[in-house]
Records
---
Amino acid sequence: MSIAILIVDDHPVFRFGLRALIGAEPDMLIAGEAASGTEALAFSRSQPTDLVLMDINLPDINGIEVTRRLRALRPEARVLIISMLDDATVFQALKAGACGYILKGASGEETVRAIRAAAGGEAIFSPKIAQRIMQHFAKPPTASAFPELTEREREILALLAQGLTNSVIADRVSLSIKTVRNRVSDIFSKLQVSDRAEAIIKARDAGLK
C-alpha cells in the first residue's frame, strides 16, 4: 500500500519539489497540501494520512504547536519535521510528538529514505541533527539555565521560544492572559531584554526547551 502524505509548508516552490520527489516513488502518494497550520489541522480532521511532512516557520501557527495539536487530534499520526532550523528546536519538536527531524538541505535520496523510515515507525534524523542530539545527551548535568527565573517563568519562556502567543501560553499553563502578560514582562526584566525576539534568542542559545 502507498504511504499517504500531507505536505505542510508555506513555500510553493518547496512543496513543488516535494511533490516531484514523492511522485516519482511508487509506494508514496500526496494526500494533500497545506500552506498554514490552520489548513493542516483542517485537512487532518477530515482525512487521515500516514505521514505529515511539517515545516516549522508557518505564517499562522508555529509548526511545533501544529504538531502538538495534530498528535492530540490523531495520536496515530506520524510527523516528520523538515526545516531550515538547526538548533534546540529539534528537542521542542520531539516533545511535541514529532518522530523525526531532517533539514531542508537534505538530498532527495535522504529525504525519501527518511519518509519511508518515519512512516514505518522509526525515529529518523539528518546526520547533523543526530549529532546535535548525541552531543546534548553526552553533556554532563549542568545547573538550570536562568536561575533567576522561577519555575513558572522558565516554563513560560520555553513556550515563548516556541513562538507561541500570550493567549496560547495562557491556555497551556492555565493562567489568564493578563497574568501571562505580567509574567512575560517580569521575564524581560530579569533577562535584561527589550522584546520577545531577544528573549527567544537567549532561551534558544541556552538550550531551553
---
Amino acid sequence: MLFGETRLITGRYGLLFAVLAMIVAAAFVFALATGSASIPFPEAMSALLGSASDEVHTLVLDLRLPRALTAFAVGGLLAVAGVLMQVLLRNPLAEPYILGTSGGAAVAALFAMLLGLSSLVIDVAAFGGALAATLLVFSIAHGTGSWAPTRLLLTGVVLASGFSAATAMLLALSPEQQLRGMLFWLMGDLSFAFEPAPTLWLLLILTVAATLVARQLNVLARGEVQAAIVGLPVTGFRYLIFIASALATAVTVTTVGVIGFVGLVIPHLIRIVAGSDHRIVVPASALAGGALLVIADTLARSLLAPRQLPVGALTAAIGVPLFLLLMSRRQNYR
C-alpha cells in the first residue's frame, strides 16, 4: 500500500522534482563559473573531473564548490525549518526566525566579537544563544500550562524585539574596526564557509525524517483536535517539531549568520505550486531553498566584484517582491 502511494506521488509530482533538480544543477553551474574571475563552463566542469589547471582547480574546488554546497545546505535547512514552523504555529506566514532564535544568536555572537574572542568561541556563542532564545520563548509561552500557537507567536515577536534592541546597543558600543564584520555577519556572510559536510548531513537527516512523518505533519496542520482524534501524540510531536526547527535555525545562524526570507517564501511558494501534502512540501522546499540561496550568494559575490554584498540583503531583495506577489495570489492553508 505504501509503495503504491509512493509511486502515485512520484508520478504525479515527478515533473516538479525534475524541474527543481534542473534548477539546483543550474544554480551550481552558475556558482562555479561566476565570480570576480569568470570561468567558462567547460573549464569549471574540467575542474570537477580533475583535468583543469591548478589555478582553476583551486578556485573551483577549494573556494567556490564548498561555498556553494554550504549555501545549498543552509538554504535547504531554512526552508525545511520554515515548513516545520508553519505546521507548529498553523500559520503559512511563519518562518524560522519568528521565535527570536536568530536574535538570541546575534546577541551572543556580537558580544563574543566585542570581547575579541576566537571564531570558534563566536560560533559556540551563536549556537548557544540561538538555543537559549528558543528555550526562553518556549518557557515563557508555556508558563501557564498553555501553548497556543498565538501565545507562542506573540512571545517570540516580543522577545525578538528585545533582542533587536540589544543588538543595536552592542553595535553602538563596538569599535569601528569591528563594526563592518559584525554588520556583514548580521546580514549573512558565506565568505568563510569552507566546511559544508555538517550542514549537508543535517539537511539530509532532517529532510528524510520530516518526509517520513509527513502524514503526521498533514494531520497536525489541520488542527490539534483532529490530530488527537486519529491518535497522534500531539504534545510530544510538537516538542519534536520545535526541537528540529530550532536546531536547524541555530545551525544556519552559527554557520553563516542571519539570513531571512528563505524560510518564509519557499514553503509558501511550494504550497501554491504543489498543495499542502508534506510528502511533497518538505523535500521540494529543501531543494528550492537550497537553490535560492546558492543563486543569491553567487549574485552577492559577483554583482560588485571584487566587493561582496551581504547575502541576507540579496535574499531580502528577492524575497520581498516575491512574497508580495505570492500574497496577492494567496491560497488557503490546509
